[in-house]
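My main concern about presentation is that the manuscript never shows what a single data entry looks like. The format is easy to grasp once an entry is in front of the reader. For illustration, here is how one protein appears when written out as sequence plus structure tokens:
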Amino acid sequence: MAAIIQVEGVSKEYRLGVIGNGSLYKDFQSWMAKIRGKEDPWTKIGAVSKFGKRDRFWALKDVSFEVEAGDRLGIIGRNGAGKSTLLKILSRITAPTAGTIRMRGRLASLLEVGTGFHQELTGRENIYLNGAILGMTKADIDRNFDEIVAFSEIESEFIDTPVKRYSSGMYVRLAFAVAAHLTSEILVADEVLAVGDAKFQDKCLGKMRDVSLNQGRTVLFVSHNIGALAKLCNKGILLEHGTLTATGEAAEVIRIYENSLENN
């Protein structure tokens, strides 16, 4: 099958520490002191000026892989391995420092609980707002509205209540329900199921598996729950310190990851 996602040599570099002094005026004074060889007037006594220093950190380094249509790819690794950074680049939230990404089809991303939700709006209003942000038309939302509410398990008396009064579980259920019913070719989910109860987590995993097997949608899934990864994913990649160290069948990549945890 043709690759729906192609990632070639993707790297992401971040700058560490404070970028400036908090205002253009202070930055200008620090800059003038630096070119004149004088002390930075905004540095504390006895401290070393950090103005102009460029400490860098590579969150991702030369990552390349392909995902075929209908695959359920688990992105595995420890905290700080670069998993969320990779998903943010794929979701076009941030741009890579180097490398190219090619995607064929629309992408729906669910990276944080309730992203795009407005606290003062009701659940009903947020379904339309979040659906529009994710690329759904009003006709699409109207057609899927009852299914979205039923899947989220939000009681009818709460759907017209402002979401600021929702529990975290209700919040994530509604957010996932909207994303799951988006007519996109690629679904990206990052640890969003950690808030829900075990029953709803199984329901979400089943939904993602169903849309992949029956609708041909591609799923990219990040989780520290190895059981959930093994249950959902058929392919996997392992990231360590921003580099890709393993790729292949999900069970094999999970085995390599678990061995690395035991050896360290």
